[in-house]
Design a protein that fits this description.
Two copies of one chain form a homodimer.
Chain A lengths: L4 E8 L1 H4 L7 H11 L2 E9 L3 H14 L2 E5 L10 H9 L3 E3 L1 H13 L6 H5 L2 E3 L3 E3 L8 E6 L2 E6 L3 H19 L4 E10 L3 H13 L5 E8 L2 E10 L2 H19 L3 E4 L4 H11 L4 E5 L5 H8 L7 E7 L2 H8 L3 H7 L4 H15 L3 E7 L14 E7 L4 E7 L4 H22 L2
Parallel strand pairs in A: 1-2, 1-3, 3-8, 13-14, 13-15
Antiparallel strand pairs in A: 4-5, 6-7, 7-8, 9-11, 9-12, 10-11, 15-16, 16-17
Helix pairs in contact in A: 2-7, 3-4, 8-9, 10-15
């Protein structure tokens, strides 16, 4: 079996340390490294300070074969990665003609003036292999030093991802001889982590050493991730499939998908397969359910539209709700949610209608209907199913959980239709 | 001036290393630490492996006064933080009666059965101060060792945040005597990072040593963050205000807000102040604009509703669009976007209507109207303003950028109204 390549991913920038932005780069990078059999063993963030960067480079050098840095390559004064790399490699910045041509072309193509700061972005450490950035002005850099590979990339996620996908990953694959690491994700909804664990304990205990299991809980869902390490892909893939086939019967009713499936992609697939169309009436989720459905490319094949009715007036006018029902039962009630799902299905002329209405918080609760009281519904030509959720007091969580539950209700109903 | 307290934040879990989930905990923790004058100097993630955890604890011990760990405290077999802390502190797990009572009560209150795995969650390292978790089953732990403080918290964001806010931050404040660190964020839209930097260069160069500037670019916005360090809050606050007053005239037309302002909170404030109401017609953004508007607590005071019209049919039926306009110009055109904004304003009876329509991708582009061709509009009783955006080829980015631009168009129009 080839030697396992270990990597560290380091983000540079005060904005991440001080918590002003969420770092999504390291997550993405480690996922991509996994697909080519490189295992990330540590991720770190340090600020825009030379000493902290030098220290982490020295430490990582002791631990791993590959170090990927992102950030600190912008044109502004707080970006110091390049200067620090020069100190680390004991070299200096020289103007790179290819990089200069690239950055000049970038501005010319966009008809924008180039500043002196932008020009200086083409000055690179003398020992680096220049990796052209076709998607922005900060260059990519590749260094080989003392048997390790160092890669430095811009922190802007779109530029970093484009550079990684198109240039760095192929180069890493050619450089290292790596073992095979395969993942299989089983996605469940509607059961807690420890209850899931009890159900599958005998299976989990019997897993072979080279297949590891992890529980990844999030908003009403728990993902089970199997990771297998070996030397050849095909038998390893078969082993994973055997394990999945063994565990599925224990948890079948909770499994909604595998790998990169999301509830919105699974319901999209079902709607497409069954040639059905969808309309949505949203109150407390305020457009979030629709935004999830339309995140999926090609959603226009089955999604016709939504009515977000925050004001009661709109519920009456656009959804055809009976004002009497609203007056008698209120906006957060079983009769209202039923009418909303049926009304939006009728108004937009689709096969299925789903609806949400409730008190997302932080205000608007009453002793009868506290914050977190939320109704959801799904109407088809067969019947209308309604459900009452009793959630917590946090607006963001209530919106996300409600979206999760109404998409799962939709999924369950779609499975019953031809 | 009191000694600066340096902290490291460490997340534990294969799910973060392998990239299956985004770590938002460390961002949140470092922001909160900053508010009590503790500076995060490094953030790291390691997997569920004892050696990696031990190594990072030893390293962090050399560098900082405070180490905060999250994750690896769940009931399942892949969670090993507690055992590893025992090895590190050379102690053992003992059943903690307070923790046991807490976890027993947690299940009793919810009418759910408690598993043996859950019971074992109450076994804690003998040297720890137990920090009760009222929001879940994994305990919080506080250790003092060799002049450092170690805090171990569950990885579930909601539980971690509740523990930090209510128990850990007050305890840290009492334990350490910390300097004052103040931040001021200036939020701009519609100007690139390097152009902004050129405009403010003389001001930036004249900043005193104890006030640092960072540029934080994201989706059509650039945030300028000033960080000031000192010993007393009031004069430091005044210094920051003086600096903001100096830089504002240079960039005034691009500034939409300060600190935690977002475009959606700023437009919400304007709508409230001017007693105006809002309706939204969304096509290519699919509900995302509405979801941003309704993220803001109290949005129901000014937001009446949206029509998400993915099918052309819905544009005609629900927005009252002239089918002739659609037939002649298509859904992605100036006449259509104008009619959508005016139509939704009329249909829902609000003071203002905004609209989006375009080709978000990845499919649906033509030579005439490639992916990324997107129209936005804002209709008021004064006039209707339309704008053509030429964005890129990535669906997610197109949706987010369009949302950004249409909210900024709305903001600009609101500023012209009484």
């Amino acid at each position: 079996m080839p030697e396992t390549i270990h990597a560290e991913v380091v983000t540079i920038g005060d904005e991440i340390l001080f918590g002003q932005i969420t770092d999504t780069n390291t997550q993405w990078i480690s996922t991509e490294l996994t697909t080519i059999g490189i295992r990330t063993v540590r991720k770190s963030s340090v600020g825009d300070q030379a000493d902290a960067i030098l220290q982490i480079l020295q430490e990582a050098h002791q631990r791993v074969n590959l170090i990927i840095l992102t950030g600190g390559l912008g044109p502004t004064k707080d970006d110091i990665t390049k200067h620090t790399l020069c100190r680390y490699f004991n070299t200096e910045l020289v103007m790179n003609p290819d990089a200069l041509e690239m950055v000049t072309g970038f501005f010319a193509k966009r008809g924008r003036a180039m500043t002196e700061m932008n020009r200086l972005q083409a000055a690179l450490p003398a020992n680096c292999v220049y990796i052209p950035n076709h998607w922005g002005t900060a260059p990519g850099m590749w260094f080989e030093f003392d048997g390790r590979v160092y890669v430095s990339l811009p922190g802007v996620p779109f530029e970093m991802k484009s550079l990684m996908t198109n240039l760095i990953l192929p180069k890493l694959k050619a450089h290292f001889r790596t073992p095979v690491i395969l993942h299989k994700m089983i996605r469940t909804v509607g059961i807690g982590e420890s209850f899931l664990a009890e159900r599958i304990e005998p299976w989990e205990d019997a897993l072979p050493q080279h297949i590891r299991l992890a529980y990844l809980p999030s908003f009403g869902q728990v993902k089970l991730r199997l990771t297998a390490t070996g030397s050849t892909a095909e038998p390893l893939q078969q082993e994973l499939e055997v394990q999945v086939a063994r565990v599925l019967p224990l948890i079948e009713q909770y499994v909604f998908g595998f790998d990169s499936d999301e509830l919105e992609t699974v319901v999209g697939r079902l709607l497409n397969q069954k040639k059905l169309t969808l309309a949505i009436a949203e109150s407390c989720t305020g457009g979030y359910v629709s935004a999830q459905i339309t995140k999926v490319p090609g959603a226009s094949a089955y999604f016709w539209g939504s009515i977000v009715s925050y004001a009661n007036d709109i519920k009456v006018k656009s959804l055809g709700l009976d004002p009497g029902i609203l007056a008698e039962h209120g906006a957060v009630s079983e009769p209202t949610i039923r009418s909303m799902a049926e009304g939006v299905r009728r108004a937009l002329g689709t096969s299925v209608g789903i609806a949400t209405s409730g008190i997302a918080g932080p205000d608007g609760g009453t002793p009868d209907k506290p914050v977190g009281t939320i109704w959801i519904a799904c109407a088809t030509d067969r019947c209308t199913v309604t459900r009452l959720l009793k959630l917590g007091q946090y607006r963001d969580q209530n919106i996300q959980l409600t979206t999760n539950y109404v998409l799962n209700l939709l999924r369950e109903e779609l499975l019953t239709l031809n």
